[in-house]
Amino acid sequence: MVVFNRLIYLFAFISLSSYVSAQEHSDFKTNEKLRDLYIERVSEQNASFATTYVGEYKSKFQTLYRKRSKDAKYYAENDVYLFEPSSLEYLNTLKNKIAVANQQFDFSGVNLVIAKFPWANAYSTGDGTIAVIPDIVTFYDNEDQLTYLLCHEFAHYFSRHFERQITKTYDYIESDEFKDRVKEINRMEYGKNTSAVALLNDNLYSQRSHSRRYEREADSLGLVLYLNASLCATESVNEVRKLGEMSEEFDKSSVLIFDRLGLPKSAGEPNEMMNIHDAERESKWDLVKSHPDVEQREEWILEEVERRQEEICETAPTDEFLKFKMQMEFESCNILVEYDMVDAALIKSERLRIKYPNSEYLKAISGYCMYQLYFGRKHHELFNYSRMPSENIKDPDLLNVLNSFYFSRLPKLRVAVYDFLKSSYTINQRDGRFLVSYARMMNDMGIEDKGTMTKLKKRYQQFYPNGKFAKYFPYSTKHVNN
Question: What pTM was computed for the model?
Fold first, then answer.
């Protein structure tokens, strides 16, 4: 069965790799109707929470609920939350599968969104919003692993962890112990700041302790929700293991991106800086962690699965999952670019191009990143787009790329970036970032290729008729075919 599942995965991957050239990720955009519906639903949800809240902090919670509605609306209207129809339809299919198997819980208030942040995570805001950040999906192998992640976040919502955490914070602030310590600090002539920091740290340690307990509760209830849907128990353990892999800085099976990019080598041997021992953890690290260690979570879930005598199994990825994962892989690159984390976007894009060699979108991302890094070096502001090379960077591909852009001679760097853009360009390219980068690079090189420049300009104006960067294309588009 395992061999059969792996064959299915292989055939699905091959078919998806050929499909990707026709599926342009630039079409991955928010649907305004879905966005407005989300804002309406979350506003109603928070208004309901404010009305039905029972407790001694009613006015405080009403203020929090109003702020939470404003934050949700801000994120939705400013494209921090994405409402792309096909991806949300897929996520809601997974949600509905869990809801049908757990009808004792009301899933009507759960709203799934894609959140544009440059890290791998998912989170529950407490008002029913479950946000999935694209990069976390890229680590998963199949649908069941993604579903367990959602179940964990559903469990946070159903357990009311947001309200419970805030209540404990208010309990502490309103306690006689806290008020007495504040009065004592105010009476002090010296050391007020030190004492105030100590008081805040005590509160922080207490909050993080509660947070770790809530994570354990979310794993417990999340596993129940997951197993009630008759999903593969082993994949719940594998999902937590994937979280451990996310802590690795890079894929140890390096694809020699530095050679693929054709960048000039800088002086020295940057890979010699790799043998650095990690600093020892501070003694209070365990106190300030908001989550249990991945090893602790994995051990507990494995024990629970074995206690339930669940069968060992393996899940093959569905075509729907592979398509969704591809969308998230591409979007994770785009998010890095939007956050000006250009060096990370370049490395991620090139690694994905091994998997999707026909993707015009990934070619565009890599070409744009190469140009931005060159532009930063040329204008002495490379630090705006990348990290400084250092012994703390453990990815040899990234370290070599950074060394090249920081320390290579500019004329050699200019030629390398131009050659990369030239070799990456095809007439199917419609990403404005790439088209403008290639045109600017041609101008920088002093290359007067009227035919190519005119085609670039026509392509740009076709997809961006009001584009503000048309000035970088100096020639007329009259009588020119694609």
Answer: 0.84
